[in-house]
Design brief:
single chain; alpha+beta; Herpes Virus-1; 2 domains; 13 helices; 40% helix; globular; disordered C terminus
Length: 369
């Protein structure tokens, strides 16, 4: 019967394999971006804090391991269990072959596709042909490992081989079990095709949706994309990186603009992130309010919303309806429905609000004239 590894064992193996791949990438001057960088920082920082808490306690290695894997122990350091799903990176085409050669020493690397990103990301601020999107599937256990073991056994003396027969068989069985249980993952590579002397924009390519996605991993460590820090002073860049790293530890994602797609917002929510947007006009109300929604006249929940111009209160969906429906829709008039004060460009707030808030577009009776 094949060995069945525990989920904790598989998670650790998965983390070690992906960490190894990420180290190989940056050693070849690749730049990693996106979720893999967030997950790596969160994992390493929470793991560091976990071991720091246990540093002065006289615990056995086995007990520390047990606590590390216990999800109710030091649950605030949840990041130690997080691992990247796949890895996004960019690298110059002159470094690609060396990178793949190094990866193939340990992994099976399978080409999935090669595409021109400009065709499906038309807003990229680059010329067609400057980037090539290549996807590889990475199999964590190289399929040639059993062959190498067999070759090594051929050089072993027969008596020695017979003596360790059961141990050798058990080892090969574990290798096969790990290969069957550990999931493959993808490398999504944006290959820089420009001459190496010409500067390419920093990733992520396309519009930067959340501040935390500006965090990059390079050979010399973490840094921020110039998409976020353009024209910032060094001290301001440092302060921003410290704040963003703090946001990642709290699983807080700040939207960079109002028209982040619902898919992107939903994806971050599923990863456990709280989505934040710097509204110009909308305010969250958490006070105990005895009044009612000015649109539907129903009672309000503990958390509801108002505009900065007056104290009229709204359900999520009612605020959206008042902003978008009817002849006095606030996105059209740019005036508050209740106090008539100017609320310029409220459409940006409403667009972000719909993406972030639950029940923002629940259908209620159309009470707005």
């Amino acid at each position: 019967m094949a060995t069945c590894y525990s989920q904790n064992d598989l998670d650790k193996l998965d983390w070690k394999l992906k960490s190894s791949v990420m180290e190989t990438i940056v050693n070849h001057d690749g730049v990693i971006f996106g979720g893999a960088v967030r997950d790596m920082y969160l994992h390493d920082e929470h793991a560091r804090l976990f071991y720091q808490k246990l540093h002065n306690r006289e615990l056995s290695t086995e007990k520390i391991e047990e606590l590390y894997n216990n999800r109710s122990a030091y649950a605030n350091l949840f990041g130690r269990w997080i691992r990247p799903n796949d890895i996004d990176l960019t690298i110059h085409e002159s470094k690609m072959e060396e990178l793949l050669t190094d990866l193939r020493k340990t992994f099976k690397v399978h080409l999935v596709f090669t595409r021109e990103p400009k065709k499906y990301l038309p807003h990229l601020q680059i010329a067609e042909g400057d980037l090539t999107h290549v996807r590889y599937r990475i199999f964590p256990i190289n399929n040639t490992i059993n062959t190498r073991i067999s070759d090594a056994l051929n050089f072993m003396h027969k008596a020695t081989k017979d003596f360790f027969k059961e141990e050798i068989a058990g080892f090969i069985q574990k290798i096969n079990a790990a290969r069957n249980q550990v999931r493959y993952f993808y490398l999504d590579i944006m290959v820089n095709m420009k001459p190496i002397t010409e500067k390419m924009q920093d990733p992520p390519f396309g519009n930067l949706d959340f501040e935390c996605n500006a965090l990059l991993l390079k050979k010399d460590g973490f840094t921020l994309s110039s998409q976020l820090t353009h024209r910032m002073s060094p001290s301001t860049r440092h302060q921003m990186m410290v704040r963003i790293m703090g946001d990642i530890l709290k699983k807080r994602a700040v939207m960079r603009h109002s028209n982040v797609g619902l898919f992107r917002v939903d994806k971050m929510k599923k990863k456990g992130y709280t989505i934040v947007y710097d509204y110009e006009h909308i305010r969250v109300c958490t006070d105990k309010y005895l009044g009612y929604c000015v649109i539907c006249h129903d009672d309000l929940t503990e958390e509801h919303h108002k505009l900065s111009c007056c104290d009229a209160r709204y359900h999520n969906c009612c605020l959206v309806d008042a902003s978008r429906k009817g002849s006095v829709a606030m996105v059209t008039t740019e005036k508050c429905l209740m106090c008539k004060r100017d609320i310029y460009a409220i459409h940006n707030d409403i667009e972000a609000f719909i993406s972030i808030e639950e029940n923002a577009v629940t259908i209620k009776p159309d009470t707005v004239d």
